[in-house]
Amino acid sequence: MTQRNTIVLLLFILTVWLFPPDASAEKSCLGFKVPHTAVKVGDNRYKLTKPWEFARKFYRRTYRGVSGIKRTTSVVIPGVQSLYYENRNKGGRWAGANVSDIHGTVYVYCWEKEEKVSKTSRKRSRPKK
User: What predicted TM-score, i.e. pTM, was given to this entire model?
Assistant: First the structure.
């Protein structure tokens, strides 16, 4: 191996080590990002295999500063922590998502945006008198 090839290989290894690809968000629930370690437990429902602190940091890092995404905390019940995300963007399929820690188990649930019904289809759906 020449000296040039060795330098290129070392720079490549250093680059991958310093800037690893983000493999923690390879799954999605209707477009809402879910950590790759999550296990699907139902339609649009995931159970995270990592603790609440990981989920909180993951979603803070993933959606911080993203325009059109509103984050709020909700549910004040002993043993339950929850974050609520609302998608105010016109694009995307997900309308909202809950990330909840229920007695040490973290769940993610997301729901789809409702389709807007046009005025002409509403008129057709009315029963005739």
Answer: 0.66
